[in-house]
Amino acid sequence: MAEPLSPETIAIVKATAPVLQKHGLEITTRMYERLFVDPEIKALFDQAEQASGAQPKRLAAAILAYAKNVDNLAAFGPSVERMAERHVATHVKPEHYPAVANALLPAIKDVLGDAVDQRILDAWGEAYWFLADIMIGRETQIYDQAA
Ligand code: HEM
Q: Which intervals hold domain Globin (predicted)?
C-alpha cells in the first residue's frame, strides 16, 4: 500500500488543478504526442480504438479530474473500478505506468512553462503515482481472477 500523500502535496495539487484543467486539452494533446512515440504503447490504444471507437483523451482528462478529489479519494472509487476494467480489457500492465508519468509531467511543463516549477511537478508526480498504485493493485486482482 502506498504512503499517504502529504498535506503539502495535496495542497499544491488542489491549488494548481484549476489551471491544469483550463489548459486540459492542450496538455492532453501534448501528452499523447509524447506517449505515442513508443510504438508498443501506441498499439494499446490503436486496438482499443478499433474495439470501441472511444477517445483515449479520457485518460488524461481523468488524471486532471482526479486532482480535484485528491483529498477525498473515496469519491473516486467507482471511477477506479471502471478504469481498471477498461485497462484490463485493453491489456494495460504495471510496466506501462511510467510511460504515462513520463509523458504527462513534461507535457504539463511544455504547456504551462514558467507557471509551473519543480515543486509543483514533484507534487503532481507523487499524486500520479498514488493513483497509479491503486489502479495497478486493482488491475492485478482482476488479471489474477481471470487467470
Ligand atoms: C493513473 C493513471 C491512469 C488513469 C487515471 C487512467 C484513466 C483512464 C480512463 C478514465 C479511461 C477511460 C475508461 C472508460 O472507457 O470509461 C482509460 C482508458 C484507457 N487507458 Fe488509462 N489511465 C491511466 C493509466 C494508463 C496507462 C499507464 C495506460 C497504458 C499506457 C493506459 C491506457 C489506457 C487505454 C489503452 C485505455 C482504453 C482507451 C479507449 O477506450 O480507447 N492508461 N484510462
A: 4-140
